Fold these 4 entries.
Entry 1:
Amino acid sequence: MQITFWGVRGSYPVPGAATVRYGGQTSCVEARSTSGDCVIVDAGTGMRALGNKLVREMTGPKQFDVLLSHVHWDHIQGLPFFSPAYIPGTKIAVHALLTAADELQQVIGGITRHEFFPMPLESVPAQFEFHQVEPGVEFDIGGFHITPIALNHPFGSVGYRIDGDGDSWAYIADTAPFTEVLHKQHFLSGPEPLSEDDRTSLRAMRDALMRRLQGVDTVVYDTHFLPEEYVRFPHYGHSTPDQALEICVEAQVRRLVLYHHAPSHGDDQMDQIAAMYLARGAEVGVEVLTAFEGMTLPIGPAAEGASESTVLGVGVT
Ligand SMILES: [Zn+2]
Ligand SMILES: [Zn+2]
């Protein structure tokens, strides 16, 4: 199994001179099994280039499965520009959180209403299906075994542990650390005080995450903020590399990939972040890589001892 990063940013796309090396597109990762099965995690603007590649590979009608963490803009905005959707006979199955999926058809239909986009969802040649996922309720897609994991983000989010080819990786975005309840907080007014029930739910959420991460080879984690930024915006629903590293050390994960980069972090700052956390990870026995657009990573024992030299670049267009 291998994974490829088609979009690594959070919040909004930032293509430009300052983001040439790490990329400016928003969240989208492709997982590939050795038998060629594919699953797409999140549908940010990086999904457009992925779609173009998939169309070039297609030899006939095909089904694509898209796992959504949640339906914030930076995780769905690529869907209307996913070119396989315009090929008759294509099926696109979108899997999302129970609460979001209740209205998912409306959400996706909403962003393609005629005011916003020239072709409404019901006119798209591909057949769309919507599936609700529930944290802890596992399911299979092709050769992949999928485990949804509840995360701590305003109005909810879900991560995924993905097992395939005898190996596993996890996609943990978007999430804040497990010290504050976010879904009941107001974006502008900031955090509300925690009740004892809130603390209990957060502990349970963290415990469940730790159980699901046991034995996982590679964890891709929302590390949007640096620690000095996080203290100013603890209620935005994102983590720092330090918080992700703490989780990975405790779960004895081999490799952490920093992901969902803040749009304000240009290439030079990203280089500093990558170097700083590679060194910090080495001190505690976790290999820390920093995702860039076009990065392909082999998952599992075959990648044992991997370093940046084994990271494969792909041509993202
Ligand atoms: Zn996001
Ligand atoms: Zn979000």
Entry 2:
Amino acid sequence: MQSRLLLLSVVLVSVTACSRQEAPPAAGGAASPATLAANRAVAEALPLAEAQDFEDARRGFIAKDDPLVIRRADGVPVWDFASFGFIDGDAPGTVNPSLWRQARLNGQYGLFEVVPGIHQVRGYDISNMTLIEGKSGWIVVDPLTVEETAAAALALARKHLGDRPVSAIIFTHSHADHFGGVEGVLPADPAAAERIPIVAPLGFIEEATSENVLAGVAMGRRAAFMYGQPLPRNPTGHVDTGLGKGPPSGGKVSIREPTVIVDRTPQELEIDGVRFVFQYTPESEAPAELAFYLPELKAWCGAEIVSHTMHNLYTLRGAKVRNAVKWARYIDDATRRFPDMEVVFASHHWPVWGNARALEYLRAQRDAYRYVHDQTLRLANEGYTPREIAEQLDLPSTLRTRFANRGYYGTVRHNAKAVYQAYFGWYDGNPANLDPLPPEDAAKKYVEALGGAAEVRRRGKAALDAGDYRWAATLLNHLVFAEPSDAEAKELLAKAYDQLGYQAEAGPWRDVYLTGAYELRGGERATLLDPKRAIDLLRHTPVASFLDSMAVRLNGPDADGKRMTFNFIFTDVGETHVIELENAVMHHRMAEPVPGADATVRLTRELLIKLGIGDAGLRDLVMSDDLQVEGSRLELLSFLSLIGKPDGRFPIVTP
Ligand SMILES: [Zn+2]
């Protein structure tokens, strides 16, 4: 029962990581002839030699740390860019050449001048830090994911541009790779730090602290697949996320309350002597987001609603689907409000210069999302179901030939399914899919119907030999779910995943497949969840969110028939929450203590955080000076023992 408390599942899947596996099990090996042919076909179909993106990604280069390895105070690397040094020259057979091109582009790192007055540090994290020259110092846009990378990026800028102070900070949106490093750019003196204005979109703190609270454990596990967390960095492993190299490993995440809120379009503000015209762009790439224009510099910052990839309407780690229509409208709005823009820069990737090119780029980004949205609904209205839609949908030639619209991070296939999901949900309307058997039961029956394990193995091998990897994966997945101890079946399935990974144009698809293969071969199960590194974020998380996360950990069947009431008085934040257990549901509300409760508990939010991150267990709770109980300690313990702690390493590729 020790730590069965509310391990708050926070955060930022993108933030933390367990140590990389140094000795992975037997790797995937070579590309098959079918994969070589598929990757050759990609190379022939796309103008991979086109130089414009490379020119743009290098333009304005000033300096870089070489090699670039950013370490924590204890010496552990947080950001090891040098480990991607193998990405050079032509694509190896084991990497889709279009993804390889993107990985090479994301390999252009350092300090760059965008235009006089705007600099960017790129490649010091998965995201960009932008520095806008104000009257008294730099306005920092998006201080990266962790303090260590943010501090290194700012140090690079200071070394080459002069020792300017930070005069303001802008968080473009509520994803951690755009605010988590804030402490790394604020002055050490707290009084000086307090004086620095922080601009963020309405809803920023709520979204930043709560987005992953309820579902974070499962998201963290799925994110390890999406980012290929346990994979080595080499031509048969992780090469790129499509958006950037990957999330930093470990490092300290922090957050600051904004002091200036952007909540409308247009919203004009002068920040450190620079004129800004903000657009409020919520429910697009992030639930709380903004973009802005700098009229004097004719520069538009597209935050993350534009980038050099088709972005995710749905992210494979799992999240609520995003609104394609609003997303497209915000980009359209920028082209109409700021038709004189001369440069577009963003929170990931490199800028686009020149009025005509910038506007064309934006219109193509806009239409990529809009096309997927509109055509998915056209096909749905003709009766096609998600997999049928995804199979036939591709961008029109005018969009798909532009590299910035290609699916390096999001893909047309999974985004089409996201649009379907947004309108229709999980059910495709076919009665056979209303209540099918769960995977293990179905697998056993499929294997039996196909003539037994040996026959399925034979057919699986035949599909592998034919290069029919999607079908091989389906067949062999049934076999593995029917016979999880069948080592040969697992190796065959891993081989199918290897080749699917080698062919994938999207970084996350490659990582998902290769991580699946890695685990089938006995690799340790990874998760990208480590709340200890996000303690600062937890301190900004409302008590009610912690209680919500407790409610989703309540073991319903064990709680059946129990009725309890508690007053939780949080002495450090001066809040009282009444907790009631009834019908196997935990309710909570901020209210005056109710008489007749089973117990009244005085505790601190800090203690709750410690419990949440596993720094304290139930014993500590009972013994702690930070906790006093009036009433029945036994009932309290009995209640707390109903709150489970998922271990976050559940199986995915096996039952
Ligand atoms: Zn981002």
Entry 3:
Amino acid sequence: MQSNNLAVAAAVVSIPLLGGIAFGQTSDADAPWYGVPLPPGFQAHQAPVVLGDRPPEPARVPQGEERFPHLDGETMEADVQTIVDFARASRERKEVGDGQFWGRLGGLASASDATAWVVGHLEQAGIADIEVQQLQQDEGTALWLPLRWEMTLLANPAGGPGSGDVALESAMPLPRSTLPQGGVTASMVYVGTGSAAESMHADVQDKIVLRRVSPQAHSFFESQATFESARHLFERGAAAVINMMDMPGNERAFDYFGCGDTCFNLGGQDSRFLRSVLNHAAEDGTADELRMRLTLETESLSGLTAQNALAVIPGASDEAILIVSHVDSWFDGANDNADGLSVTLALARHFAALEGQLERTLIFLISVGHHTAGLNGPSHFVRMNPDIVDRTVLAINVEHVAGRNLAPARTFYPDGHREFDADTGEAPISAGITNESPYLQSLIDEGVARYGTNFVSGNSTASSGESQWLINLGFPVLTIMQAHPLYHTSGEVAQIISTPGMERMARFLAFYITEASTASAEALAN
Ligand SMILES: [Zn+2]
């Protein structure tokens, strides 16, 4: 197996030293694989971006708020690491297959352990009214899991002497792909983005079809285009579709579910290697000779159980403000959603320690999340707690809140792909308010002015996978959410979280909740 095991981190760190030298350029015609440098392999738990010495801008502490110790960034930074560690333990103990895939997985121990840890800290914060609710996975649903897999460019003398097997280690199979035992071995065809116009002249029958996906931020936003083009390709007989993703580093990306057949994502460095090899092969007239092998073993789990936790801080009135944060994740899940969960825990500590009661009752929902079919946290919460739903006047979903902004600042690749560099702020944060209440929107404006939270400038009604079960229940829902470029990838690690960013968000939300607690029902409702 020919695989250059340089750590991704080493490759990334070396970028600034390389000046204008481009990866992927032919250097030696007698070298393997047309002289294209081999991809760096896969390295878990490493930030696939340049994290230089300039830290994020410090948090602003408005006068009088110095006395809120639970909103300091340091505790949240430690909490993010602990929450990420539940996911890393999932990989280390091979919770799924051989550990190629991991996370805080709803229905498995990794998510349950994380929830139990949060509950322990809510108790330590002095909250007396805590309830852990057991959830049963809905009948007829299943959690699809990839146990083990391989994507290999097969050895071929057409690539030049020494062109051995190359394992593309960032490959990630997507639900609900299936392959026969022994996998599939086929030639490849590259169809650009895979749109109907680009692929109409390509013969894709029984081939592994490669298409390029260039997410602008959140990979989620490309979902619709990837589904549509995959459908065309499968209708015309494609054996499998591979999304070559323009992403920082060489990460596994678990997104674009339900492509209709067998699909894989491929990380940035592996994708560049493969594209470069195919371009050289096309120039050489040897493209038809190259072969790829895909293998995949999966399982589907039913009858799972998970937990939601509810923590109540009583106010003067029974009317409730519901604060929701989800536990589950794909991979380390530092931004999705260890940062949001840490901010939520800080808010619970803050309000539990505050002298005097708020006007309204605060109910914290530590949700199992929304990744596992049949174990949706908010959906089960609504079914199990009609009394709370009835007295809720505002829900706030704290989800993906303090990932550092990653700018595609450096060009080192002949195909125009850029590596990413963290700057001194947080990635843009949207604040969707379902009922467009002018009052609730004005509090968002104040957040920018008082705390420097990087909210996008336009108002929206956006909700998320976590908040969609709460949006039609008669109360407004605020969804705080970033569209981070490492979303749902293995590169979403603790180092990319901004500690001052968490403090900005925690201080802002403490302010927001305090204000909303005294607002009139009319102001919240419209
Ligand atoms: Zn999330």
Entry 4:
Amino acid sequence: MAFDFDTKYPSMEDLRAKAYKKMPRFAFEYLDGGCNEDINLHRNTAELREVKLKPRYIREYKGANLKTTLFGKTYDAPFGVAPVGLQGLMWPNSPEILAKAALQHNLPFILSTVTTMNIERASELTNGNAWFQLYNPAEDTLRNNILDRAAAAEVPVLVLLCDVPTFGYRPRDFRNGLALPPKMTLANILQILGRPHWAFNTLKYGTPTFETLKPYTPEGLNLKQLGQFMDQTFSGRLNEERIKPIRDKWKGKLVLKGVASEEDALAAIRLGFDGIIVSNHGGRQLDAGEAAIAPLKRISEKYKDQITIMMDSGMRSGPDIARALASGAEFTFLGRSFMYGVGALGNKGGNHTMAMLKTELQQVLEQLCCEKVTDLPNFIL
Ligand SMILES: Cc1cc2nc3c(=O)[nH]c(=O)nc-3n(C[C@H](O)[C@H](O)[C@H](O)COP(=O)(O)O)c2cc1C
């Protein structure tokens, strides 16, 4: 097998362990944690891994092809970078690193509303291929302005998030006083001093800020005021009335992210979405919820002919991606995994993680004697 990544870190667990050593604790815990008692965080991966695939060795085989067509564009593999907020706080310049790697690997990159790179830059770095995830703005004017910017930047796919009607209850972040920029408490200063590479890069790239939101954010707000501003500006709670003007205005593809029930999948179809991402936000919102693989199977059975079905939450490897695809996802996204890669290996982390996942997934298809990604459901046990 040929490797185009550093085989010192051949698994996600290697990257996670290395990222743990390189990131300040408050940043690593923001990335790594779920919510409440982390039950759903662990359930996502554990239940996904109950999916088993059956190899078929004695047959004609022409080789594996990972290429996957989604919304009219053919990507090199059936996975992409999920939207993640505050990326530059976790690793300086990380959204740029991941956007560039996604372009190089021909994979989709989704920019979060609340990350540290703006829509225009994401589009520039990906030759107009970056998708944009929208937190629902409370105000129509702000919403329309952001949609106009995304359209002007030629964003092909808008991803509307529905699973943050309230912020997740995340005890580690409360304890760490997580904020952007980081609060300079003694504990945080000590953590930063122990992570010189992170500190050096933060100085080099400057204090991370919510780049897309800069034009709307009053200058000189203290942290408390910034928090209040964000609360007033965004209302994550969605209903049909709020969704309709977005569908009317947005001419590109529209995807609903955070679908975890058949009812919401049906609503997405009725409201004219082109796709859904079945997701529980990586177990960061509802600790008492199901693993994402469970609604994925039900939704795919019922609605796969009516809407494009994608999934995220819990995948950490090529076999995990294969399990999700075999269970009815047409495409997958990973959140933490790419950030573990960048936290571990800096500028090389995006390429490393993408190359590693491609190699792992390719091996699974070859082992199953499966030729293309869309055939994976035929191999489920
Ligand atoms: C640190 C962190 C920040 C996130 N921020 C956002 C965000 O701003 N917008 C969004 O739609 N999803 C956000 N998500 C959720 C991811 O897009 C994705 O649903 C989740 O990470 C998938 O689970 P996984 O991490 O197990 O792959 C975030 C996830 C993490 C881990």
